[in-house]
Amino acid sequence: xxxxxxxxxxxxxxxQSYVAQLKEIPQKFNVVHNEETKTxxxxxxxxxxxxxxxxxxxxxxxxxxxNEAGNNDVTVRLNSPGGDAFMGIAIYNRLRRHNGKVTxxxxxxxxxxxxxxxxxxxxxVMGLGSMLMIHEASNIVWGTKSDMRKEASVxxxxxxxxxxxxxxxxxxxxxxIRQNVDAETWYSAKKALEVGFANKVxxxxxxxxxxxxxxxxxxxxxxxxKSQILNELKNVLNPNDPAPVQSKRNxxxx
Length: 254
What we know:
The protein is an alpha/beta fold. 36% of the residues lie in helices and 21% in strands.
C-alpha cells in the first residue's frame, strides 16, 4: 500500500480550521532518565507511527525508552495530532504494562491516536488550554466493493477496541462515547476532567469553583463571609473603571 503523505494525513480531520495548526506541531521524541530520583521523562511531540513519513516515532521507540527506565516512575509530555491507530494502541498497552507510575501531561493537543496514548496514564493532567480529540478511524482503500466492505468491517472492530480503551477512564455511557467518536469531538481541559478522561487540570485558577475543594481553608468561610469579602474588594476598585467585558470564543463545529 502506498504510504500516506503528510498532506493526506491532515486532510482526514473533519474540522479543517485546525489543519494548519496541527502541521506546525514540532516533531520530537526525547527521553531523560534521572537515577537519583528514579524517574524518567519522555517527550512525545508530533506524529505517531513510522509508516506516515520519516520524521515520526514508533512503539519500538517507546519500548526502548521504558526498558531503559526500568521501574522508574515515568512522566510523559504529550502534544500530538495522532497518526497510526495501531501504533497508538501498542504504545498505550506498553505504557499500561510499565511497573512504575505513569503520569501523562497533555501540553497542547492529544488528538486521535494520541488520545488513546493519553488513556494509559495512571494520572492524566491536562494543561491549561490543552485539548483532547476523539474521532473515527480512517484509511485509504483502493479496490473492489468487497475490499471496501472488508475495510469498513476492520474499522468497525478497531473502533470498538478504541472505545474499550476510552471506557477504562470515562464516567459516561459507552453509547455517548461512541456518538462522540462518530461526531469527532474536541474536549477542553475542563471537559476532559468532567467526563473522567483526565484527573487534573494543571495550573487551574484558584478562583475556579471546580477546584474549591482543593483550596486549603475554603470550607472555613460561610456564604455570608464570602459575600462580605467580595463587597470589600469591589469598594477598592475605581467606580469609573469600565466593567470588564468577557471575551467570546468562536464555536467549533464538527
